[in-house]
Known about the structure:
The chain is an alpha/beta fold. It has two domains: 2-100 and 242-268, Rossmann fold; 103-238, Rossmann fold, CATH 3.40.50.720. It is built from ten helices and twelve strands. The protein has helices spanning 16-27, 43-52, 65-71, 77-82, 102-113, 130-140, 154-164, 223-230, 240-255, 262-268; strands at residues 2-8, 31-37, 55-60, 74-75, 87-90, 96-99, 122-126, 146-150, 170-173, 185-188, 211-214, 235-237. It has a six-stranded mixed beta sheet with strand order 2-1-3-5-6-4, sandwiched between helices. A six-stranded parallel beta sheet has the order 9-8-7-10-11-12, with helices on both faces. The chain is globular.
Amino acid sequence: MDNYAVIGNPVAHSKSPQIHLAFAQQEGVSIDYRRILADDETFVATVEKFFHDRGCGLNITLPFKVKAYQQCTELNDYAQAAKAVNTISFSSTGDWIGANTDGIGLLRDLKSNLGVELTRKNVLILGAGGAVRGILLPLLQENPSQIVIANRTYEKAEALAKEFIAAGTISSSQFSDLKSSKFDIVINATAASLSNQIPPVSATVLKSETVCYDLAYSDQDTAFLNWAKTHHAGTTSDGLGMLIEQAAESYFIWRGFRPDTGSVFSLLRPNR
């Protein structure tokens, strides 16, 4: 039986085992997929032990995506751009091969599941942390009219926009400077939803058809999505679809089998 796992801290909450076991059932194979708890000091040794125990692939979650990136000897384009890795394969000699599937997962959820196109759209991203790094290159490759990054610490947004400027039209802004702008798509990539807070963005950025997407996911609407609905945004969605779609891309990298993701939505959220 092939062995896979997700490694993080914390990791007990991870839905990855349910998702990947559902994918394996579609493929008609049996796999083992488990959660592994590590800390900063033991992360590398834990991954090495997993490989030597005949592990085939790993998903990397917080807080180890950057450390995984630093340890990989081979990286795909998205991992290089993000400077973060969420999927590891192994060479026959145990070298780490890193990928970042977060941006692909977001695009597939937006385009295939929600019917949202990004070409020639004005996109606002709230936040400038690691989650944003993982999605910027795939988003820019869709040729939006512009991407604007807004962050409480403006310097972080500015530095991130400058880093990706060669890939497309991207700029930075302070929240207070957005009031006169309208956007087709607003993506919340801040940690505010984790504490039931709303980013300090004015509702004037919304149009009646604006898509509001929260990278966080929850069985109830996040504070950001409640805010979006209160101000009559056109479409709202949390990040569960992104989670499932990025996992499907990881599964494809490992096994060459592309799962159907539709049935996994009903498995994880049967009442919605």
